[in-house]
Amino acid sequence: xxxxxxxxxxxxxxxAFYDWANSVYSLVIASAVFPIFYQALFRASNVETVTIxxxxxxxxxxxxxxxxxxxxxxxxLIPILSGIADYVGNKKIFMKFFCYLGALSCMGLYFFxxxxxxxxxxxxxxxxxxxxxxxxxxxxYLPDVAFPEQQDKLSAKGFSLGxxxxxxxxxxxxxxxxxxxxxxxxxxxxxxxxAMQISFVTVGIWWIAFSQYTFYYLPVGNKSTNKVTTQxxxxxxxxxxxxxxxxxxxxxxxxYLTAFFVYSMAVQTVMLVATYFGEQEISWGGEDKKxxxxxxxxxxxxLVAIVGAQLTSKASEKYGNIPTLIVINGIWAxxxxxxxxxxxxxxxxxxxxxxxMVMGGIxxxxxxxxxxxxxxxxxxxxxxxxxxVAEKIGIVIGMTIFGFIxxxxxxxxxxxxxxxxxxxxxxxxxxxxPRNK
Length: 437
What we know:
Radius of gyration: 21 Å
Number of strands: 2
Shape: globular
CATH topology: Growth Hormone, Chain: A
Distance between the termini: 38 Å
Strand order of the largest sheet: 1-2
Largest sheet: 2 strands, antiparallel
Helix content: over 70%
Order of helices and strands: HHEEHHHHHHHHHHHHHH
Structural class: mainly alpha
Strand content: under 5%
């Protein structure tokens, strides 16, 4: 197949469509169905703890520690893999590998059980690793397929496609869970659990099937005849260090990355704990209402985020990327303050809508802004691996601080309120970025 030209409509659409393919993991596995299934599994077994490596641990810390460990591994893998990919000049093969690893692991969650908890957590662990590792290669393609003036719109388009696709599959999965008899699964609690297990398989199938369009059109990369040796395994870290050292010569990129690290730490933490906050701190009036309310909130966030990503793209065109990011950080800070006081479902729905409005916008604009500030280089994967490592380390730090404050104060509201500090610091750091570029 003839390689498509950079900036061509077909190539841009193919790149953005990977968001449609893989975002079902973020929504169905990370946010909606799997958390419900996981907690229901413990309730159905009438247990609060499981035995891991000879010790007893509750369900929530267990999944939190597994998630944190997966992000640590991703942070270590990204520089190694990106270094290899740039060295051999074929990053698409790595993107494919982790796409299939993540998708097949999602399908493996069908067998998730407390009796085989280690194997079950292994599937959860590898699904997360597959998703985030493929993401760094996907991001690194942005400056390869789009010109700078196209990148804001394309990045926003990708996130929007992701929100639309994931919502469509979630609605289908929720129909199975709420009305399993219509799908020939029977009635009652066991049928609903089976429907959730099947939903994990649908995520894997969706992810693999729709990613083929992206893989067909994306270029292989900067081809090279280099072969991977043992020494090359460590070149990724050297390249990462090289990126870090290069920041001293690029003041704009250095200050932007610092700001991104700080505010992204808070953004990712809010997104990861939002469901838990709603479950513990909002008075729903019953378990069924709570489940329906939380699912509805997730859908509200996803649907509003489609609009938010597009509005942010238009705002960046008119006012510039940095001023737009400053305003969005201010909105995030206001949301955290508002969350400290909310107690009713209606208030939670409104807050969820506000989160959706700025969630997609800040992610899409952060990615495209970073892409614009990169120096002229063919080594885009190493630069984006640095970006992703910074984000992942921020997640670990943010979640640790959040958990520490929650544990010490015994009140999740104080943890949410403390995140305001990161958004305010992000605003201050964004204001320090020179405006001459």
